[in-house]
Amino acid sequence: MLQLQKVTFAYDTEPVLKNISFKIKKGQHISLIGESGCGKSTLLQLIYGLLHTEGKIFWQDKELLGPHFNLVPGEPFIKYLAQHFDLMLPLTAAENVGKHLSNFYPIKKRRRIKELLEVVEMEDLADKKAKLLSGGQQQRIALARALAKEPEVLLLDEPFSHIDHFRKNNLRRKLFAYLKEKNITCIVATHDSTDALSYANRTLVLKNGKIHADDSPENLYQNPPNKYVASLFGDVNHIMLRNLRADEDSRKRVLLYPHELKIVKKSAVKAIVEKSYFQGPDYLIKAKLNTDSILIQHENALDENMEISIAVDKKLVHQRVSRS
Ligand SMILES: Nc1ncnc2c1ncn2[C@@H]1O[C@H](COP(=O)(O)OP(=O)(O)OP(=O)(O)O)[C@@H](O)[C@H]1O
Known about the structure:
This protein has 324 residues and is α+β, with helices and mostly antiparallel strands. The protein folds into 2 domains: 229 residues, 3-Layer(aba) Sandwich (Rossmann fold), CATH 3.40.50.300; 89 residues, CATH 2.40.50.140. The protein has 9 helices and 17 strands. The strands form 4 sheets. A 6-stranded mixed sheet has the order 6-7-8-3-9-10, sandwiched between helices. The protein has a 5-stranded antiparallel sheet with strand order 13-17-14-15-16. The protein has a 4-stranded antiparallel sheet with strand order 2-1-4-5, with helices on one face. The chain starts with a strand and ends with a helix. Bound molecules: adenosine-5'-triphosphate. Pfam families: ABC_tran. GO terms for molecular function: ATP binding; ATP hydrolysis activity. This is ABC transporter ATP-binding protein. Keywords: ATP-binding, Nucleotide-binding, Transport.
């Protein structure tokens, strides 16, 4: 188990992280999300041991004492993949992956490098010099290198940010299946809602230096505690309740994702179309609903200034309003 107790950290006077405490079971996958600058990378660096904290960090029964106590910063059983993946540019892809592997068993080393290049789908470029690889290819090599000595804990900071969409999905499925198979504990700091929703057992949300929410991705998505959390997963409407229900006269608001608003033939709730955005499988319709600007997922594009009728599941509205 990885355990953080009252971890606090400041680069200068103002703390970036304040009294962070949580536990992560061995083999769990955690996504760490929050707005840019909220301290995700700082938290990963504290766990790895690059930064010193007054709080305590344990792995199993061992306290990780941090850079004031380790001659070489960083714990040997943890691998941290930073946003800038620091490869040896004159070496080949394969040499970079094997950089920290012992030369004592050359056959075993070659086999391991091959296995890892397969995980990140880079077998074809094994002999290409790192300096000649694209940003996304370099990122995949850095991932393979982080896995080479099979860490117990893997800390990934935006690990797919340079990788194209098509390859990213495949790579994610392969990588997280590999980590599960090897029972490697993993924390992924990410802005990507797919990382946060599809591949994590649990999601930690950081805000103002604190753990703002800690729950399963399903619970956080379906019952977002507030707009901050909901908007980390994508577009979300924050609609004044009285704009949806004529009988409602309070200033309460309800959080609804664009796919939860339906355009129907008839309803008392009317909006005016402002713009349609093509998004592949459907369109995102921007419309004005009295005082609110809203987004609705819809199968067709709609004409500007057209009046539309909107329906929302009453139970869902009730559930979301009672939580907020
Ligand atoms: N070396 C540093 N010296 C001083 N301040 C820093 C340093 N590194 C980060 N910060 C500040 O600490 C805060 C947290 O930064 P951090 O990089 O941890 O955020 P983040 O959530 O990972 O951001 P992003 O999502 O944009 O990568 C920010 O306000 C940042 O400006």
